[in-house]
């Protein structure tokens, strides 16, 4: 059915109501409505933008950042371990959620705050098998690699490139299709434009001991690769939840979507054996208040890691002390709500390279851009691709810190009773179990602890500006398994107020040690032939900052503090864990203390994984559909 009105939704015989039409939410809705006898309502706070060039054209980089139509543009609270600055936390706004603006970032410090320039990234990656198996070890039966792999595959259609065997080896792009989906809604493909600088970086990585890995979707992702991007090769447009889970099914009479409506509270009533039953929601649209009632089966929250916890709290579910401090009646005391926030923290580097090497910096020339727009009409050229095709995933061994006692001391210090004394006992229990798993990963050579993302060009940031005619390469160094834990909570009883987001970057100093060593590896890449031979100068950090003297380490630490930020993969704030371990939902995604309220988004992941979260968000929606169908 086309987009509906509030009155139509109120009158509909709803079996399921999904709050949030994002990546996981639309996946779930599309699968549930395959049954013509099931009616599903989706309430999305943003709009629907099927014809937006900002969303659809892969090469239009950064055009959704801080745009009120597409981005919620949240900010963190000041980060005391990172220059005491608030840091932007973009989230997709509109049908498709963050899959519509799934982005890549670059960071530059400003005197007021850390400013981010966000570039469309489109990455479709998976974590290692051991990481997914850890979900089951934490008390979630059925959430293991073998099971989740089938949902990764179910969500996607992979197109194998026509690279020659030589280029497949050269660019670390030799996927085995048995590990990929071939008939799912989301299209993914390898880049059609490859640059020589990209391959030279991989050569330098091999010289430093990091091999190419042509197939990273098979449960082992250490190495250098050219990654799949969520782009439809037939149209050269972004493939995302709204374009491929919603649009083909929009005419289903049982698939109801309400736009530009903000849910303010989930309505609960006494259910079975002391539990609560969700039966409706309060919402606001255009300044007016409405209520939707009579949901027969389940209400599902799919608002994402930053917006799911506040909605639960506004509905009386969460830490009773936080709720009572804002005058909200505690219905279910669930201390894990909004806790355990984790994200990949990163910092960037930019070098100027030999101008004879092609990069996307050429797009700053109006004549070149005109020609590229013409090529795009034929699904060719730089605009049909994302300029961040290369990724390196490194183990602690590659970083040289697997046996570094200084780092181990800081890791162990994070587990101390002093550092965890402020936590509610169930949260402390869960955190201890998570840390034990993370510690075990540290010694494994086949598991990634860091990532280096490669952007073939100068990312568009306020300063330093690129010089016309020059060519650049940007690399972003990121921590994959942060030990720091943050929070997301309401700051008042106002349902339209932005959440209080505290990522607590470097709350555990081991994360700083890992990021410093990752940045060190990145700098070594730029100094190691053959890529090192084409580097002309250091832009960020500047060459003077890299002087090999006694102050180098302190300057690198300061560079990170001043320029760090997230890779926009927040997880953990409605963790899928046993209740006695601080969990919010069980392995069927049901909120503890309720009969029929579930969470379906990446906030359920109790551990940050060495992968970008887009593919996992689709897998969660797919698996949730089977859970609700009873499969």
UniProtKB/TrEMBL annotation:
Q: Does the keyword Zinc-finger apply?
A: no
Top-down, what is the taxonomic lineage of the species of origin? Eukaryota, Fungi, Dikarya, Basidiomycota, Agaricomycotina
Name the Gene Ontology molecular function terms of this record.
flavin adenine dinucleotide binding; pyranose dehydrogenase (acceptor) activity
Q: Which reaction does it catalyse?
A: a pyranoside + acceptor = a pyranosid-3,4-diulose + reduced acceptor; pyranose + acceptor = pyranos-2,3-diulose + reduced acceptor; a pyranoside + acceptor = a pyranosid-3-ulose + reduced acceptor; pyranose + acceptor = pyranos-3-ulose + reduced acceptor
EC primary class: oxidoreductase
Cofactor(s) the protein requires to work:
FAD
- Briefly state the protein's biological role: Catalyzes the single-oxidation or sequential double oxidation reaction of carbohydrates primarily at carbon-2 and/or carbon-3 with the concomitant reduction of the flavin. Accepts only a narrow range of electron acceptors such as substituted benzoquinones and complexed metal ions and reacts extremely slowly with O(2) as acceptor.
Enzyme Commission (EC) number: 1.1.99.29
Q: What is this protein called?
A: pyranose dehydrogenase (acceptor)
């Amino acid at each position: 059915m086309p987009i509906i009105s509030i009155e139509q939704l109120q009158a509909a015989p709803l079996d399921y109501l999904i709050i949030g039409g994002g990546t996981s939410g639309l996946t779930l809705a599309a699968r549930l409505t395959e049954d013509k006898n099931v009616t599903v309502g989706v309430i999305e706070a943003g709009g629907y933008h099927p014809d937006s060039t900002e969303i659809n054209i892969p090469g239009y980089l950064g055009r959704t950042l801080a745009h009120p139509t597409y981005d919620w543009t949240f900010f963190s609270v000041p980060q005391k371990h990172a220059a005491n600055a608030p840091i932007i936390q973009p989230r997709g706004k509109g049908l498709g959620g963050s899959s519509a603006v799934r982005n890549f970032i670059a960071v530059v410090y400003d005197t007021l705050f850390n400013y981010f320039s966000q570039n469309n990234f489109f990455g479709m990656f998976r974590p290692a098998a051991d990481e997914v198996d850890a979900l089951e070890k934490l008390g979630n039966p059925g959430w293991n690699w073998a099971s989740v792999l089938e949902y990764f595959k179910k969500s996607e259609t992979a197109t194998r490139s026509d690279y020659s065997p030589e280029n497949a080896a050269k660019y670390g792009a030799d996927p085995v299709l048995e590990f990929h989906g071939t008939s799912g809604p989301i299209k993914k493909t390898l880049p059609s434009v490859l640059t020589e600088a990209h391959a030279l970086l991989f050569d330098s990585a091999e010289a430093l001991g990091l091999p190419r890995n042509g197939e990273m979707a098979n449960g082992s992702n250490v190495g250098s690769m050219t990654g799949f991007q969520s782009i439809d090769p037939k149209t050269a447009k972004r493939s995302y939840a709204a374009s491929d889970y919603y649009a083909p099914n929009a005419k289903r009479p049982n698939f109801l979507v309400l736009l530009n409506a903000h849910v303010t509270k989930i309505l609960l009533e006494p259910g079975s054996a002391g539990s609560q039953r969700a039966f409706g929601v309060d919402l606001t649209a255009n300044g007016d208040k409405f209520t939707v009632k009579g949901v027969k089966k389940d209400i599902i929250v799919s608002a994402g890691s930053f917006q799911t916890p506040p909605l639960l709290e506004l509905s009386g579910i969460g830490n009773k002390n936080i709720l009572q401090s804002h005058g909200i009646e505690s219905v279910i005391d669930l201390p894990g709500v909004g806790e355990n926030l984790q994200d990949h923290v990163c910092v960037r580097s930019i070098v100027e390279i030999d101008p004879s090497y092609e990069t996307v910096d050429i797009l700053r020339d109006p004549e070149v851009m005109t020609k590229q727009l013409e090529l795009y009409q034929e699904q060719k050229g730089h605009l049909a691709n994302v300029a961040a095709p290369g990724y390196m995933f490194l183990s602690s061994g590659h970083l040289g810190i697997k046996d570094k006692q200084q780092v181990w001391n800081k890791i162990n210090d994070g587990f101390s009773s002093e550092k965890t004394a402020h936590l509610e006992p169930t949260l402390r229990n869960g955190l201890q179990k998570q840390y034990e798993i993370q510690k075990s990963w540290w010694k494994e050579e086949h598991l990634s602890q860091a990532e280096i993302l490669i952007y073939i060009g100068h990312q568009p940031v306020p300063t330093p500006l690129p010089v016309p005619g020059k060519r650049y390469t940007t690399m972003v160094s990121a921590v994959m398994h942060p030990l720091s834990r943050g929070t997301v909570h309401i700051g008042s009883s106002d349902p339209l107020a932005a959440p209080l987001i505290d990522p607590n970057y470097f709350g555990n100093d081991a994360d700083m040690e890992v990021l410093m060593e990752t940045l060190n590896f990145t700098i070594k890449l730029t100094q190691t032939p053959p890529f090192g031979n084409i580097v002309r100068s250091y832009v960020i950090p500047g060459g003077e900052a890299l002087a090999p003297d006694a102050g180098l380490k302190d300057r690198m630490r300061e560079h990170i503090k001043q320029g760090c930020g997230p890779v926009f993969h927040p997880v953990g704030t409605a963790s899928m864990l046993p209740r006695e371990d601080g969990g919010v939902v069980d392995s069927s995604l049901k909120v503890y203390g309720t009969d029929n309220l579930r969470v379906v988004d990446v906030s359920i992941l109790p551990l940050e994984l060495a992968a970008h979260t887009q593919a996992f968000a689709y897998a969660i929606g797919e698996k949730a559909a089977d859970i609700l169908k009873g499969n």
